[in-house]
Amino acid sequence: MLVELTVLFWITGLVYGSPNHPGDEQSFGYDSGELDPPHWATEYKTCSGKYQSPIDIEEDLVTKVNLPLLRFHNIDTLPTTTSIMNNGHTVVLQLNYSAPVMISGGPLTPTYKFTQLHFHWGVNDSLGSEDLINNHSYPMELHMVFTNTDYDSDSIALTKNDGLVVLASFFEITKEDNPVYSEIVNALDIIHMPDTSTFLPNGFTIRSVLPESTEHYFTYKGSLTTPPCLEVVTWIDFKHPIRLSHNQIQAFRMLRSKHGQLTHNARPVQELSGRPVWYNVGGFANLNIPNTSSGLTFDFSIFNMVMLLCCKLATLTLL
Ligand SMILES: [Zn+2]
Description:
two-stranded parallel sheet, binds zinc ion
């Protein structure tokens, strides 16, 4: 079972390790020393790219837009199997379906297929998210990774600037446990050590782990937040957080990496380098905007033109 899961997670693990270093997944870390984030670019040159993630999103500086509805497909179906793994850097969940979970719409031209989800957290409840909002850090962040279905394989998608979409959700602390996450949190004891995995008995639907509202979100172009930090990601950060108790988040901090306790795994924010960040105001979900033509790779100038048009339309509607 472990061998099968290792193969399974090798594919999804491309998000965590370098394709040039298969099996060498411990060549980056988060604690101070040679493996910490400021040193990643020594071994992974692409981590010093211009358009890296995460970033600090300043709400005063974002461009407000009104994008078409973000469409979810098959998110109310329970997976046939759900595996959970401690890969030494994070907790990764692989959900297998008889029909794929997909997203389209919003800022996306192609359709993207769900690949895996994982988490980032901090040493205490005052920090842990990767993207910041107004320099504010949330205690944990969920990343749902989707791959562009226009490409034949995940490895090809990782070479394209529109290869991946990550739906990011922030967590905030609440007094009560969130029952949707109980099964995940309960499994953390079993995967306490790095490179261990298990299956969840029941699993969950994708909808159940999304924030209640997915209408309002920030979106920008950036990178994987782990080596090799490839600049292939369209980020969609939902505004509304998910609630989780302190004890539930604390359980993640108890996991072990190969270097000790995995108390935190958030990369510090990177330079924005003039990138535009958009905020979807929602409320005009059926607004018709020009199609940026299928097969066209994501392009800032074209996207900008569409955004400007959307802004004008939204402003007119508001007036
Ligand atoms: Zn991540």
